[in-house]
Design a protein that fits this description.
The protein is an all-alpha fold and 238 residues long. It contains ten helices and no strands. It has helices at residues 2-34, 38-58, 64-76, 81-112, 118-125, 129-142, 146-152, 157-166, 171-199, 203-234. Helix 4 (81-112) packs antiparallel against helix 9. It is globular, with a radius of gyration of 26 Å. It starts with a helix and ends with a helix.
């Protein structure tokens, strides 16, 4: 009798809605349980960021700038954004600095050896003669200050580093110029990530925007340089 009266009061549609609400809540709770918490995310993200930036500094094929921008987007959506962003900035700067100093030390061994080294040859392979000549000219004109600009210009880091090696710049002097260069690099790409995170409400949207912008920054200058070079070759001398 009680069950019948309850069904008559609530009605079948109300019971269906209530059951659906409980099912949806169950699904949402299960989905939330699958998403790792912030401590787990940070325990994975921070070491991965450090490792990838170090490797990307040694082997210049990993888009390290996009990694920093993406990490900044994720940090912006954490419960304490300021602390997470500070961690991303510090880790990326330290990793870039360690990678640069390690690569420079390996290159110095090749410069000081009669037979050279594979690391020095790799640096030469990533530094076209015209870019190397420009880097050597800027190094003579501006000294270690050119290291800051080389970190911000796409494909500019390796030619300037090779120019420093060929000029036999001491490691200590290279370190003095590389510290502000790594800081400026991290701040630049971090701000790109913050911009993407602020403009878009969803983290994945900001992540896609930041990666797209860093990719555009990395690809556009080399393409423009090649286009100008090709145009100069095709233009007949007067």
């Amino acid at each position: 009798m009680t069950v019948q009266l309850t069904l008559e009061v609530w009605g079948p549609e109300a019971w269906n809605l209530a059951a659906g609400g409980h099912a949806a809540a169950g699904w949402e709770g299960g989905a939330a349980a699958l998403v790792p918490g912030e401590p787990t995310q940070q325990a994975v993200t921070y070491p991965a960021l450090f490792l990838l930036v170090v490797v990307g500094s040694l082997v210049p094929v990993i888009p390290t700038g996009a990694l920093v921008s993406g990490a900044a987007v994720v940090a912006l959506h954490q419960s304490v954004p300021a602390l997470s962003l500070a961690a991303v900035f510090g880790i990326a700067t330290a990793a870039a600095f360690l990678g640069d100093v390690t690569l420079y030390s390996l290159g110095r061994r090749g410069v000081g050896s009669r037979n050279g080294s594979r690391w020095l040859e790799r640096l030469r392979a990533h530094a076209p003669p015209d870019r190397l000549e420009q880097a050597q000219h800027k190094l003579r004109a501006h000294g270690v200050a050119v290291l800051v600009l080389s970190r911000l210009v796409p494909a500019g880091r390796i030619p300037v580093m090779l120019a420093c090696l060929l000029a036999r710049m001491p490691t200590r002097e290279f370190v003095h110029g590389n510290v502000p260069a790594c800081v400026a690099w991290t701040v630049t790409y971090g701000l790109i990530g913050i911009l993407g995170g602020v403009l878009f409400p969803e983290p994945w949207e900001g992540l896609v925007a930041a990666i797209a912008l860093t990719a555009l920054i990395s690809v556009a200058p080399p393409l423009w340089h090649r286009l100008r070079k090709r145009t100069r070759k095709e233009t007949p001398a007067r």
